[in-house]
Amino acid sequence: MKDFTDNAIVISLNDDISEIKDLADSLNYNIVNSFIQHRENPDVNSYIGSGKVDEINKFIENSEKKINLIIVDGELKPSQWFNLEKKFNIDVYDRIRLILAIFEKRAEKREARLQVKLAQLQYERPFVRELIHRARSGEHPGFMAGGEYQVDDYYETIKKQMKKIKEELENIRNQREVRRRHRHTGGFYLVSLAGYTNAGKSSILNLLSHENVYVENKLFSTLSTTTRKINSKHVPILLTDTVGFIKDLPAYIIDAFHSTLEEIEVADVVVLIADVSEKKEIIVDKLKVSINELIEIGVTSPIIITLNKTDLISNEDLNERLDYINNQGLTENKKIIAVSAKNQKNIEKLLDLIYELLPQLVKFKIKLPLNEETQSFISWIYEKAHVLEISYDEFVIIHIESNIGLKEKIISRCRDLKGQLSFD
């Protein structure tokens, strides 16, 4: 049985609260009740009307379970947040703050922690300004930072911290760029797994790489990038699992993760994964969010839409979803394949499709003198490229298939060893 740590209630302006409940579940919050107020626009003062506020307060007073958190399925303005916390006397999280709390919990690597902290500081700035305004008006400064403190000093601290973190992230970004250049010149292709959070990216990474990256069935179980080497048809590929997408993220959060998302931008092929077991309308909505994010990031490489979890639906339902997705125009200029990470269905076909879409490989021959020094070079070629044929006589003649960048490196090394291109 699931071990929840705290109880929470959800406030929403529409009936679909499945995603916000999943987000709360990722932080082990037990949702004991939800309050829906159907309205086109949030109330300017308290997001929901005063009558709904009174209804919620009455529920909290009479609840047998202590309510630790109120979650608003939307984005609160600072004044709305302040008014709600003041009326409920309980911490209030909007959707963005809840996501940032999950990010903070999931961040393990230094880069991820810095990115999350930067996003949190960006989020806090307008709220701290509101606290400054309220404090100067004689009101209690609120709950966000634990009660009484000098909010004006804290605001200055935020600005200094943000500047420092941005500089650190820029250094990490530069180091990452150097590593990527080395990988490309070393003959590696870069393939990124992208998609809506909890679509099964880590499971597919495990299957393609024959590794055992930890997989958890929760939103944002992967926050830092994870890269593994795979060998497809003797072509070395670096496969990277990236942070999942989610709808309606503010631009500053996406910008905070820019250095991580660059792994998708520079990929030779992007594998865009979606959960095909969900309702067809939800699949399309999540694919649209993901494709828009890829466009915003600047992806121009081939995209393979990979519909995962086919083991959870019938063939009839799968075909219906495929037709619906195609009719929405989402597959234009993209490949599409349905797979099951759980049953390993079509995983090899996915690998073949990745290989097919990699930048054009070139074939060439080199001729090398036969000695000890060339033997180590030949071993290196076998590791980095696809050796189609090799023959030993007075010379060693090697028929190679590789990308353009690696070809130039091989030819340069070949000449250093007194070898040459062969046109036999």
Number of domains: 4
Q: Count of DSSP E strands? A: 14
Strand arrangement across the biggest beta sheet: 6-7-5-8-9-10
How widely separated are the two ends? 70 Å
CATH superfamily of the largest domain: P-loop containing nucleotide triphosphate hydrolases
Q: Number of helical runs?
A: 14
Instruction: Give the low-confidence spans.
Output: 142-149
Beta-strand content estimate: 15-25%
Residues in helix, %: 40-55%
What does this structure look like?
The chain has helices spanning 18-26, 50-62, 78-88, 95-106, 110-136, 151-185, 201-209, 251-256, 258-265, 280-297, 315-327, 347-357, 372-384, 404-416, and strands spanning 6-12, 29-36, 69-72, 92-94, 189-195, 226-232, 235-241, 269-275, 303-308, 335-338, 362-369, 386-392, 395-402, 420-421. The protein has 424 residues and is an alpha/beta fold. The chain folds into four domains: 6-106, Rossmann fold, CATH 3.40.50; 110-167, no CATH class; 187-357, Rossmann fold (3-Layer(aba) Sandwich), CATH 3.40.50; 362-421, Alpha-Beta Plaits, CATH 3.30.70. Strands 6-7-5-8-9-10 form a six-stranded mixed sheet. The protein has a four-stranded parallel sheet with strand order 2-1-3-4, with helices on both faces. The protein has a four-stranded antiparallel sheet with strand order 12-13-11-14. α5 (110-136) packs antiparallel against α6 (151-185). The radius of gyration is 27 Å and the shape is elongated.
Summarize the structure.
This protein has 14 helices and 14 strands. The chain has helices at residues 18-26, 50-62, 78-88, 95-106, 110-136, 151-185, 201-209, 251-256, 258-265, 280-297, 315-327, 347-357, 372-384, 404-416; strands at residues 6-12, 29-36, 69-72, 92-94, 189-195, 226-232, 235-241, 269-275, 303-308, 335-338, 362-369, 386-392, 395-402, 420-421. The strands form three sheets. The chain has a six-stranded mixed β-sheet with strand order 6-7-5-8-9-10. It has a four-stranded parallel β-sheet with strand order 2-1-3-4, sandwiched between helices.
